[in-house]
Here is the input.
Amino acid sequence: MKPFILLLLCLSQTVVAQQIETVTSGRKTSIRGLSVVDDKTVWVSGSNGQVGKSLDGGNSWTWYTVKGFEKTDFRDIEAFDEKTAVIMGISEPAFILKTFNGGESWKLVYTDSTKGVFLDAMEFWEDGRGMVIGDPVDGKIYMARCVDFGNQWQRTESSKLPVLEKGEAFFASSGTNVRPLNFEEACLVTGGMKSRIYIRGRLTDIPVLQGGESKGANSVAVWYRKRKPERIVVVGGDFAQDTAQAGNCAYSTDMGRSWKLPARGPYGYRSCVEFLGEKTLITCGTSGVDISRDGGNHFQPVTGESFHVVRRAKNGSAVFLAGSNGRIARLK
Here is the structure.
């Protein structure tokens, strides 16, 4: 390759990489829970009972160790404003807690000590309805719901839920393998020995890498037009081989009835995907961050830095990422 061409490529990659700005790092927590309320209000949750909050767009952070849950891994968080948020602790027993005073104290709103229980992700609708999903118990999806912004939860009867295949479960990697499908329903994606999407009571195969404990779909994102889902994008891969590019993304434009593979997929295993606009997506994983500007058909690498989760502001345009070692960054 000619030297001046190589220089241009390096400069181009540097410019792209500078779009990701780390705002804090070095804390002893692995962050997988991230909720961006607006351009100023950001909450995160992670291992070692840690919850963090910024009220100035990520410039400064306040950290809390949840009393009595110092060893709990809070894999997901949903924040509603600067004072109110819900966090999810994963397993045996599983916990959901809520704060009404900005993280100073937390109320236990749900617990389940069922053998084998392992919560993976939460999702909420604008009207306060919420859903938490977990790995199968007695072969069926674990699910609980609320209708009041997480104050009271009720476990869904197993008779109303589908049976998963042996070795099929959910990944608790970013809190985004459950998403609203519309304003009433949700869709879920599974991984492991089998990767499928659950839509309207049916499980349908997804053409992503599967067949092992570290393989499969990790995250799903939905773009809506006139209150109806127009495009569904799924990412995943193999977190044990996180630079492998095969089978780490698929997208559907017909409610999951058929799937397409991207012409150029993300550059490795990805644990989270998020729509930034009608055709623009950002995805992240332990081997880097990518952006697509054509609805998921072509991805361009942004940086090789490791992140677990990326979320856009629910009310605004800010985009934040978070990962291991307490690292939080924003997309400039």
Observations:
- The longest strand covers residues 215-225.
- The helical segments are 3-17.
- Residues 3-17 form the longest helix (15 residues).
